[in-house]
Design a protein that fits this description.
alpha+beta
Length: 277
């Protein structure tokens, strides 16, 4: 299979630092970016790759540490372990949750640090698993429309295709990775998906995008190249207020047996950073 991944993370308009982190095939980024980065690669029969977004909890200590820790641990656990199932991935996410709680208990400055996570695990045999904890989201594009595949762990659920930007408790999440100094099991959302013969397109994002734009508005941004789409989504979220950190990742998976070139890694001409937002 051929994989194209274009991603961007940024602190947004209001916040002065970024607590989101993004993971593309082992490449992890937390520093704000002014343009998206592209990865092009193949995945062989015995290979596995992980793509994910993690959003450090606002109002908690060391959210950026929690989001990076979650992504480091998930890629280590998933890529180097075979024969995955929904139950095994759920158990791995609980292990990561307990590790995060243990770290937060041992360091005062990281007390109760936590993060959401949403991601895609791809195996070369065409098997894929989607997973999320919290309110970062995963969508699949079907024709011109988006289907939300993740489940929000929120106290208030929005109606289809709509976002209430003025609802004060709409960002109250029910579970996350870490987020407490007490050990208690979480219930991750994990589902297995078979890649279709024509491939799939996925959007993974933090709530800095989905809280600012309705699903209809997100759908309308898909046009042109993946880079153009990511930049349109980012700009629209900023124009709508940009109150939170914004992370956007689009992954295209397609059969391409004729592609024999090695993985390109990040494209050097589009991955710049900015430190002052």
């Amino acid at each position: 299979m051929k994989i194209e991944c274009v991603a961007l993370t940024h602190n947004g308009v209001v916040r002065d630092h970024n607590e989101d982190s993004i993971l593309c095939e082992g490449w992890l980024r937390n520093e704000p970016m002014i343009r998206p980065i592209r990865f092009t690669s193949q995945i062989g029969t015995g290979e596995a790759k992980v793509f994910a977004v993690s959003d450090g909890l606002g109002g908690h200590n060391s959210g950026e540490v929690a989001s990076q820790l979650a992504l480091v641990l998930i890629t280590q656990q998933l890529v180097h372990t075979s024969n995955h199932s929904e139950e095994k991935i759920s158990a791995l996410l609980n292990d990561i949750h307990f590790t995060t709680v243990a770290v937060s208990r041992s360091v005062d400055s990281m007390s109760a640090m936590g993060a959401t996570i949403a991601g895609l695990y791809l195996h070369g045999l065409g098997k894929s698993f989607l997973f999320n904890v919290g309110d970062s989201r995963i969508y699949r594009r079907v024709d011109r429309f988006l289907e939300q595949l993740s489940l929000d762990d929120r106290a208030v659920s929005e109606t289809f295709g709509e976002t209430n930007r003025n609802q004060s408790n709409s960002n109250l999440i029910l579970q996350c990775i870490g987020g407490s100094t007490e050990f208690s099991k979480i219930q991750p959302h994990v589902s297995e998906h078979q890649i279709g013969p024509l491939g799939e397109t996925y959007l993974i994002c933090s709530d800095g995008l989905s809280d600012m734009l309705s699903q209809d508005e997100i759908e309308l941004a898909f046009a042109g190249s993946l880079e153009d789409t990511v930049m349109r989504l980012f700009q629209a979220a900023c124009d709508a207020g940009g109150r939170d950190n914004i992370s956007i990742m689009i992954i295209e998976v397609s059969p391409d047996e004729s592609l024999n070139t090695p993985p390109s890694g990040p494209s050097n001409d589009i991955g710049d950073e900015v430190h002052d937002g």
